[in-house]
Each structure stands twice: as C-alpha cells, then as structure tokens.
Amino acid sequence: MFQAVKLSIYYEAECHQSRDFFNKQLWPHWADLEEGVKLELVPYGKANHTEYDGQWLFQCDHGESECLANKLHACVIKKLQTHPTKMIKCIKCLMTKKDQLSSLSDCLNEIFLKAETDKYWECLLSPETDELLVKHGDRTHKMFTHLDSTPKIVFNDKFRPRESYEAQKDFTKPICQYMKEICKKKNIRQGLSLQL
C-alpha cells in the first residue's frame, strides 16, 4: 500500500510568490495528486507575534491587511481541512483578490458555501483564531530559524531548499519523487507545469 506524502506549505496570504504557487503549481495538479497527499497549509510566513496585556499582537511582512488575511486563511483551513480540494480552491480564490476580506463570500460561493459566510466572519473575529495563528507562527519558527522568502514547500516534515525551489517552478518534479506509482498511474510527466 502506498504511504501518502505529507506536503506542508508555509506561506503568506498576500505574497505574490505564494499566490503564484497556489495558482500555477498546486491547483493545476491537485486533482491528479490529491489521493497521495496529506496536506498541511501554514499561513504565517515572515510574521512575528508577541503577547501584550493578555492579547496577541501580530506584525506581518505585508502589513496589517496580511495579518487579517492570514487569520482568514487560518479559518478556512480550520473549517475545510477535511475537504482539501475545497480548501485549496477557496484559498486560491482569496489570493487572487485585492481585498481578500471583502471577497470572502464570492470565494465561498465558488465552493457552494456562500450561506456559511457569517460563520467564517465569526471565526475571523474570534480570540481563538489569534491562538490558531500563534500556532501557525510557532510551527513556522520551529521549521525555519530564518525565513527569507515564501512560500516554502516541505515534504514529510523535512525542509530541503532545492526541493522547495523546484516545487515553485515545477511542482510535479519533486512531489513525483515521493509518489512515483501515482504519477505513473496518472501519466503525470514531470516538467509540464503550467506557467501562466
């Protein structure tokens, strides 16, 4: 029996390179590869957090709007983690919008969940979501002592810079090294990633 590869994506919600990875690499290949992947999304990136007077304060690489977008992504992940295709599609949609917060209902509509928009807003405004983002931050800081750029693509909890770089250019090349049977079964030819 084939053992699924753990794919962790450390990213920032408003980072252009992160957006490109979701849109040009992950999403176009997801339908073919999902059966062999255990997906973990970690929206945090080059942010920092500190506790002050019982509340968490966040500083994000692209400013306050990215901190809110990272929190929104954390809510999407929390609510859709058992439905990775819907989760990726929603996050991909959000990342293509100039104002991710105001685009939430449109992106939820793409996955037939527009009626649940209020639940996602409640999650976004909840203090528990700050704790969730802190966990993403702690996970990021544990994996990377110095994060110079995002996204970082990690296979089976072991960061290899070359694989991460290759995944951003041609996702099938590194992942098919871990999933040879599935790539062969699906006739995935490495080197054919979309460069839109």
Give a verbal description of the structure.
The protein has 196 residues and is of the alpha+beta class. The protein has nine helices and five strands, in the order βαβββαααααβααα. Strands 2-1-5 form a three-stranded mixed beta sheet. β3 and β4 form a beta hairpin. α1 runs antiparallel to α3, α2 packs antiparallel against α3 and α2 crosses α6. The longest helix is centred in the N-terminal third of the chain and has 18 residues. The radius of gyration is 16 Å and the shape is globular.
Mean pLDDT: 93
Calculate Rg over CA atoms.
Answer: 16 Å
- N-C termini distance: 35 Å
The largest β sheet comes out as: 3 strands, mixed
User: Helical content, roughly?
Assistant: 40-55%
Question: Total strand count, please?
Answer: 5
Strand content: 5-15%
Low-pLDDT segments, ≥5 res:
192-196
The spatial strand order of the largest sheet comes to: 2-1-5
Number of helices: 9
Shape: globular
Task: Write down the secondary-structure element order.
Answer: EHEEEHHHHHEHHH
Look at the helices and sheets and give the structural class.
Answer: alpha+beta
